[in-house]
Amino acid sequence: MIKLLHVEDDADIREIALMALELSGDFDVVQCETGEVALKQVQSYTPDVILLDMMMPGMTGRQTLEKMREMDSLRDVPAIFMTARAQHNEIEELRDLGAADVISKPFDPIALADQVKAAMQGA
After folding, report:
1. Per-residue pLDDT reduced to its tens digit, 69-98
2. What is the pLDDT of residue 86?
3. DSSP collapsed to 3 states, the chain
């Protein structure tokens, strides 16, 4: 099973992503509604991949990933951003930050598991 940490403030998107990922049968998903909660969660849960919303109240996805990258256990874990505002220059900035991929919202639930796996292989 692939351990995936999903950080997303929108409950509906969390639910859709959870169903999509669990349907594939390949993922053990832990979800957090904020970057702050995610940073607490990773003290006891080391994911194989991180799926981060870009725009969240409090810490953004970018800030959350920057904090996670300071932790030895998460330094090399592939991170994938999900955003509704994926401009080309922003995508390049996120890749420079170490993002394995950027998935645009609205995302295709049917394709989500395969997109995550493909990003992990490319990381």
Report:
1. 999 999 999 999 998 876 777 888 888 878
2. 67
3. CEEEEEECCCHHHHHHHHHHHHHHCCEEEEEECCHHHHHHHCCCCCCCEEEEECCCCCCCHHHHHHHHHCCHHHCCCCEEEEECCCCHHHHHHHHHCCEEEEEECCCCHHHHHHHHHHHHHHC
**Domains of the chain as residue ranges with CATH:** 2-26+34-86+93-122 (3.40.50.2300)
Looking from the CA of 32 toward its CB, the CA atoms found within 13 Å total 24
Output the pTM of the full model.
Answer: 0.94
